[in-house]
Fold this sequence. Notes:
- By secondary structure, this protein is an alpha/beta fold.
- It has 19 helices and 23 strands.
- Strands 16-15-9-6-5-4-20-19 form an eight-stranded parallel β-sheet. A four-stranded antiparallel β-sheet has the order 1-2-3-23, with no helix packed on it.
- A hairpin with a 6-residue loop joins strand 17 (524-526) and strand 18 (533-535).
- The chain is globular.
Amino acid sequence: MQELPLSPDVEGADDSLKPLNKRCLTPDMRAARVSSRDRFSEEKGASEGLNSEDVTIELKALPDEKISDTKIRILVRGSNFVDRMNRRKMLRGINVTGSSKMPITPYGSTHLPGLLDNVEDVDFIGRPFPLKDCDTHFRRLQAWGFNFMRLVITWESVEHRGPGLYDYKFIEYLREVVVIAGKYNIDVYVDPHQDVWSRFSGGCGAPAWTLELVGFDLQNLTTTGAAVLQQDYQPSPDDFPKMLWPTNLYKLACATMFTLFWSGNDFAPNLLVGEGKCSVEALSCARKWAKRKKEKKADPRVSLKTVTVATPIQDYLQDCYISAMRVVAEGLRGLENVSGFGTMNEPHNGYHGQRNLSSVWGQLTNGVFPTPLQSFAVADGQAITVRRFIPGFCAFACGCACASYELNTEGKRAWLEGRECVWRMHGVWDIDESGSPRLKKPTYFANDKDWSSTYFIPFAKKYAEMMYKIDREWHVYLELPPIGVAPDIKFPKITKTDKIQNPVNATHWYDGFSLFSGNLQINWNVDVDTAIPKFGNLCVRSMFKRQIGAIRQESEDYIEGGAPTLIGEFGIPFNANGSQFDTGDFSECATLLDMNFEAMEANRVHYTLWNYTPDNDNRYGDHWNFEDLSVFSKDQEIDGYDCLPPAPEVDEKIVGDTTTFTLTNQGAMRKSFLYNGGRALSAVIRPYPRAVAGGI
């Protein structure tokens, strides 16, 4: 049986696709799906040998539960998503888009010099794509079988001008995008995305003023080793190593900001907003905006968020973040295809739990890598020789130092003039009589508090309370990082008393070996849990299934009453190996991606694939730190494709009690704009049950 080019149960498809939809909805075809050979295992690790044509539906009686009178189309009921008819839903989604991490004006691509020069007058309208192009992209995603979308936005896109100064025009644009997605029966959850805190610290997410507020000088973060940015990389941004950006988790700027955001009340009690130099009024961006507002050039709905009482930095940052997402939520209020909001993409605990500030720390030792103490001293103006590690998976797994590197030969400070290092202020370190840095409190961050229950859950409760005031049926997606990236972050225990109703386990998962090594390996791999190599395709497939099964089990073990599991991110690097760009042969990519999908299907979890980026190209990938995981690329588009697909032609064959359908004009179908530019579509486009009056 040949693979169908679209999901068999696409609702609301365009007229040219309706003949196939009707055929796919016939009882015979449903029977064919139910009678498929392999069955999902109830055990963790799930089935062996599942392929893209095999889907088993086990019918179970559903409780006669009344669905509340709500506008949203997807509801959480225990461990399941259901629709208004109380049918079990299977969410097959995709992240839109990878380039939404960066502004559209100035054009955001992390290799471009000067991109960070303007921290205020940036524009995200056009991310994920211009309104005029929305129909094209959503028709394509619908034809590929996606019924769900993780909509990527950033805190910066909403509040880039200063605290309390929201970009309402962007929010209005965002609402229009979501409305158009709804026309194609694509439901949405909003992902407040961040990576290593901010694009000013090597990633994306938080606005520049958050770093300035605590005293960082944005112009000197790279020179002092407080962050590594592609645009400043030497000898050229084009030499920036793939997957170097995550090492910012263990550099001063990112580690400090995460520590202050999550646990600042414990570790930085003396840093108060509204007191002395740590005040909103001291922000240069806020001062400039106040001037523009006086000149009546600003949106009249926004006002500078000032504080009259000294506020702890943790409370202030969290309140600003939640308030910004509240404005987005209010802008999307009442849309039936909005299912909820993520808490924060892949949060990190910063310095919390770090027991040795004199040694290299973290799982991603790659490139120039100072110890925490060295980073404190360099940021305070000292020139220090640090270790440099071999780029690539060797360093990720083993931490191989190959050379030394002298940081900050110019004697720059990472702190603004007149501002003291946050950790020197709190007595963590100082300069001794010989002029060398020394630790005064070497175990300052080594408290034994569980990060998830002590710091994450109180934040999630405040965040959820804000969301439920806008729509009580919205889901809260708990977007925890992939295994291995933050070992100290465990999935939190959530009880009914926490009042986080409708939680969803949206933990991320990646084949870390392929991602960090830059090599697509389908016959051997390394288990990130144990660092033990796995040999043979079946062993690798089994490992993937076991890892996904463990994430699903957390939903049952740690959330009282259970919760749905939706893998918020997974995907493969299309720029690994590299030969596929020359040959046009993406079969190896398709095989590995199919193994990823198989692990999801074997465990019956929902998912959102990372990612769909319409401006992706072969040279710079998703235009963010050389990541290239998009299943679409403009460089894979071929001239001469038809504007509209032809009507599908299906040949029906009956063998015994099984009916199969073969698409006889598959070549013509693929020569339409809906499939033009797609990568590894033989793995991406696959059948699945959209809604079942029973158990899946």
